[in-house]
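Every protein is a chain of amino acids, and every chain bends into a shape of its own. The fold becomes a row of whole numbers, each drawn from a learned catalogue of backbone shapes. The protein below has been through that process, and both of its lines are reproduced in full.
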Amino acid sequence: MTTSYRQLRMGLHGYGFIGRTHVLASQLNLASSRPCPHIVWDTAVVHNLQSSAAALAAQTFRLVTEDVQAFACEELDAVSIASPNDAHMAALSAALQNRLAVYCEKPLSSHIEESLRMAEMVEDARVVHQAALMYRFHPAVVDAYEWLHSGRLGRVLTFRAELLHGGYLDPDRPMAWRLRQEQAGGGALLDLGVHLADLLLHLLGPARTVAADVRTFVSTRPGPAGNESVTVDDWALARIDMQSGAVGTLEVSRVHAGRERDSIEIVCEGGVLYIPLDRESHAEVWSATGERLPRLAPDRHPALAPIPSKFAQTAHLNAHAVSLAVFALRVAGEDIAYPAPTFHDALAAQRLLHVIRVSAEQGGEPLGVDN
């Protein structure tokens, strides 16, 4: 029997690449008949009404405006915040005036102190909220969570987490907000590392200590007024010791090319879990003797199922689609029986990355995460 859901009217803050990804992901859910409320995109708040982004938004949204206070006035159910990191707080403040549910891109803010305040604000307002840490909903991550919590693989020994992306290896790529510390709050470590940090905390529990190295390889890029200094990192590598006793590494890069790598490998006493984040796939699991193990078959909420092959796009877009579906279901009051990433989860991941950065600034000195 198919559950009937009412539509979810949403606003969107920012209509750049990620904002458009949110809209496309919701349309993918509709096309593939995913069991969740249909998102109707109603109000878009953009930086400049004369921009190409505003013109594109006008083809989808009922209202396009520069005034973030539209979220406090409009009859909406929820707001998706997909603007540059330093603009998130303004959108959140407006949305909470209207007690709207909030879906926010990572990191919550370019400043960790502001991220803490944002997490406190949604808790105080008692609204449904979710961080767009969408890799939690990758089918291989859901598999890994169930394997690890079943206890069948025993104690976790080691892990390796990698997100090695291209795009910024080309020194002629123009300057952008993501390359300015004051707007982005960090480079590869924060932009990509927040996903890995969240997954490690989600799957393996809290971290105890870190020791790290962070580098910027392309120090200047062409800007509107000539070359401009890059003030964020291109690459980072950290050794992380977990409170459970597991030890491993986290590596992120935005100066990669060709064969990009997005994966997590977890070695346990009873076998090995491999999580391929770069493709739509279930986890690969081997026993300690090298035998490929069959998938677990738990009773999952149907919204967590992978998108059917005829509709499936990239693993990245598919994960965005499932993440938005889960958010819509939670706004509708449904329990999906799987941990959706809260603002406090996003803050915990950002805190871990902050300690990694401080360790690198201190020459790789091991630092306690709690301190």
In short: The radius of gyration is 20 Å.
